[in-house]
Structures are given as C-alpha cells and as structure tokens.
Amino acid sequence: MSGNTETQELPDGIFSILDTDLYKLTMQCAILKYLPDVLVTYAFTNRTPHMRLTRAAFQWLQDQISKLANISLTSSELDYLKSTCTFFNDTYLHFLTAFRFQPSKHVHASFTPLKDTGSQDDAGDLSLDIEGRWLDTILYEIPLLALTSEAYFKFCDKDWTYKNQEDRAYIKGRRLMEHGCIFSEFGSRRRRDYHTQDLVIQGLKRAAVDSKAQAWKGKLSGTSNVHFAMKYGLSPVGTVAHEWFMGIASITNDYEHANETALRYWVGCFGEGVLGIALTDTFGTPIFLKAFKRTMPTPANSMADDKATLIPGAASPPLPPMDSTGSMDTAEERSYAQIFQGVRQDSGNPIEFVKTMRDFYESQGIHERKTIVFSDSLNIELCLEYMRAAEEAGFTPTFGIGTFFTNDFVHESDGQKSVPLNIVIKLSSANGYAAIKISDNIGKNTGDSETVHKVKETLGYVEKKWANGDETTRWGTTNNEATKAKVQES
Fold first, then answer.
1. Nearest in space to 35 (alpha carbons), one of 330, 316, 227, 243
2. Contact 328, 355 (CB under 8 A)
3. Orientation angle between helical segments 141-155 and 55-67, nearest 10 degrees
C-alpha cells in the first residue's frame, strides 16, 4: 500500500512558491538584474529510463503542472524573505510578489506509451520541455522534478509506506552529528513527495536537539528548501547552480571566459562574502580553476578590462566588490579564490577533488581555511570518508544530502530497495545557442552532443573515468521495470 493513503489531509503537489531550492531564487534575482530578457529552453532527462510513468501518472502530473498557475508569494512568505534572506533587494522582492507561473505558456508535457492499448496502466516515456524568458521559467525545475517523482511513486511503484521515515531520518542525523558532520538537507528535487520531506526534516530536527544536548561537533546547518526552512525555523542554504554558468556560456558563446564571467556577475549582484560557495565542475574543475585564480576587477582596473568578461546586452555592468569600509574606491585586488569562502564538489572523485583543491590553494598562496561542500549522491559512509579526507587536507567540510534522506524506501512486500528516479531538468539553450554541462564525470554530461564535443576540444578538457560514476544505477538497481504497469510489447 502506498503511503500516500496515510496522509489524506495533505494536499497533492506543490502549494508554495517557496517550495523550491534557495539557489533558484538567488539566480532569478541575478537574472532580473542583468539578463531579464534572455530567452531559454530546458530539457528533461530520465537517467533511469526503464522506470517509466503510466498514463494515469502522467495525467495526474499534467493536472498538478496546471495548478502551479494558482501559486503566488504570500504576505507571510514575503515577510520571511525580508527578514531572513537579506541579500534579496527590494526590486527582486517586488518582482517575486507579482510573479506567477504560466505553465500553459511555458511547459509542454507529453507521454509516449511503449504500446498504446488505451489503458490507464500503459507505461511510456515522459517528455517535459520548458521555453520562455529565463526570468519567467527558472523556477519550474524543482517543482516539475518533485511532481514527476511524486507521480511515479503514487501510481507506479506503490509498494511502500511512510512507516519509520521520521525515525530513519533521526537515526541518520544522529549518526552524522555524533561523528562531527555538518550537513544540510538538499532533497527537494527527487523527494518521494512533500510529506516524506516533511517527516525527514522533523527527524533531523530531533537529532539536532540530541546533538546540542550532547555537545557534538556535528550539526544540521539548514535546508535548501526555502518553504521548509520557514516552516521549521531552519536556515535556508544553497550555492549557485550549474545553470548560471551554463546560461552565461551560452549567451556569450564564449566558453573560455564563461567561468570568470559568471563569477564576476555573481559577486557583482550579491557582493563579497555573500552566497560565497563556488561550483567548480560545470565545464570541468581544471578549467574552472584557471578562472578562479583570476583577479576580480576593481574600480582602478575595471575600465581597463579587455571586456572579455562583460556580457553583451546585459542590463548593467557588474560593480566590483567593496572594501571593508564599504567603499569601492580603495578595494584591493584579490582573486576570486580569495573572495569566495569555498567550493562545492558535485561530480567526479571527491577524494581527488580534495587533493586538487589543496594543491590549488597552496599554489595561490591562500592559507586561510576554506570550505568544501560535498553534494554528489551522499550517504553516511561517504560523508564520513570525505569528511576525514577534507579535514586532513585543512578544509572545513560540509554536506548537502538529498535523495538519501528524502527518497530512501524499501518495498513492503519483500524488503528490497524501492529505487528512486534519477531525473534532471537542465538548461538546453539560451539566446538560441545550445547550453551544455560537462562536469567531472562523463555520466553527467548534458546538452547537445556536438556542442559538448566542440567545447571539450576548445577547452582542452581531459576526460576522466570514475568507478562510481554510473548515473543509471547511482541509487540502486531493480530487475523489473518498477512501474509494475502493463507493458505489452509486441
């Protein structure tokens, strides 16, 4: 029996505009400031293609997508953002107050059955395409992914319940904290459903109370989901996403300077020391580090800049960071590596990444303790392993843990793992140019294959293999098509 029948009082789907990851809002803020009229497309990919929706699941999903049009920022949510997310300027908050999803205009969903018998149980492939202004479409990703996962586990794999979900999260949280792990909950996009994430956060908060009482070094530092941060008094946390780098590379059609341009405009929007964790792997970490060691323009040298890191047509040029007195006139020259508090590791071999970053910072003469945020398919054992490696190298490690918290179930009938969907929605074009991501793992390459190949050649990208990089089996395997639907193939 599906756990969905146990919580009839909870509404289906998405009912808050803040039920999303913080970095979607921060990127929308930057887009409003610099790139409000850029046109984009997004594409959906199911990395577990054997796990298909049924016709009934797809129809439910269509209905939930349509209902997004009814959502708007409430007065209490606005007050929360004003008091908690002080990096949002008044212009953006005014924009967000008036923002409305327009799914009938922006989202095209289609369903292709493997064999069309007309049955509600026919299984098939899902297509989701999003198109419109970047400013208007950037917030669809998280709701659409969460709804797709909910549809699958509501109609297809129903052999599960919510039993012990809160306690499981509590036990996981306790173990992480007693070993000194600092972590955040990152599970919105691939959660089983809203109620699961709610139970998980309740369990993690219980564990945090125990951790504080025991004076453990570990702690729950927050959640990426702004709605749940508001609901449970947690810190909303997040870093900039691949999308920011992908979009700017596509808009400028300049991959050699894309990382630096993206960093420059990010600091220009939010300032130094704010949202200061840099994502390294959009076009490969070695390529990123070439930009990371570059000097952020100051008032003294910005006019002499060769313009390579200015976006043609951007609404306004990025302002250089201010000095400690709040003045831009005397700001000293510093590299992005100095300005940013740390980096996020999201693909490839994490242990090699730690070594790479240690060597990089030492080569730049940077000796202050920096942070590494690990966020790629984590569980307790991996967190502990990466924590030891990072601390031994002189870093402060933190962890963004997602699917392991919010979609960790077993089948009621046999106790075998109920495997999560591995699904993504990525920017596919901007201003008519293909948008791509390379990453530090070939399994996470996304976008037009010809553009991917061309960019790799242009940047001198060196392909690396990692034993744990198979995205189709990242969260487990199943011998059957987990839809358990009528798949009648001729």
1. 316
2. no
3. 150
Separation CA 483–CA 111 (nearest Å): 15
Report how far residue 397's alpha carbon sits from residue 402's, in angstroms, rounded to the nearest whole number.
Answer: 16
Distance from C-alpha of 382 to C-alpha of 384, rounded to nearest angstrom: 5
Q: Two tokens at 336?
A: 């992005």
Q: E strands along 47-96, which residues?
A: 53-54
- Residue 466: enclosing H or E segment and its boundaries? none
- Rounded CA gap, 150 and 404, in Å? 16
- Contacting residues for 55 by C-beta, under 8 A, at least 6 apart: 111, 113, 119, 120, 121, 122, 124
Residue 132, phi-psi category: left (phi > 0), alpha (psi -120 to 50), beta (remainder): left
The answer to whether 30 and 266 have CB atoms below 8 angstroms apart is yes
Say how far apart CA 447 and CA 424 lie, in whole Å. 12
- The amino acid at residue 424 is V
- List, run by run, the mean pLDDT of 10-residue segments along the chain (490 residues): 50 93 98 97 96 98 98 98 97 98 98 97 98 98 98 98 97 98 97 97 98 97 98 95 97 96 95 94 96 86 66 81 56 90 96 98 98 96 98 98 97 96 96 95 88 94 71 57 36
The two tokens of residue 406 are 């919010």
Spatial distance between the Cα atoms of 381 and 482, rounded to a whole number of angstroms: 27
- Name the residue among 228, 282, 224, 279 with its Cα closest to residue 403: 224
- Where does residue 462 fall: left (phi above 0), alpha (psi -120 to 50 degrees), or beta otherwise? beta
Q: What angle do CA 387, 392, 396 make, to 5 degrees?
A: 55
484: left (phi over 0), alpha (psi -120 to 50) or beta: left
pLDDT on residue 462: 86
* DSSP codes, 386-451: HHHHHHHTT-EEEEEE-HHHHS-EE-TTT--EEPPP-EEEEEEEETTEE--B--SSGGG-BS-HHH
* E strand or H helix at 362: helix 350-363
Question: Residue 271: which of 28, 21, 87, 90 has the closest Cα?
Answer: 87
Rounded to a whole number of angstroms, the CA Rg of the chain reads 22
Q: Count other Cβ atoms within 10 Å, centred on residue 409.
A: 23
Residue linked to tokens 């990919």: 45
Per-residue pLDDT, 464: 74
Q: Which residues contact 466 (CB under 8 A, 6 or more apart)?
A: 348, 349, 440, 441
DSSP three-state, residue 104: helix
Model confidence, pTM: 0.92
Q: Which pLDDT belongs to residue 470?
A: 57
- Could you tell me the strand order of the sheet in which 277-279 lies? 219-223, 182-185, 396-401, 371-374, 342-345, 277-279
CA 442 – CA 465 distance, rounded (Å): 7
CA distances from 315 to 38, 157, 275, 296 (A): 11, 47, 22, 20
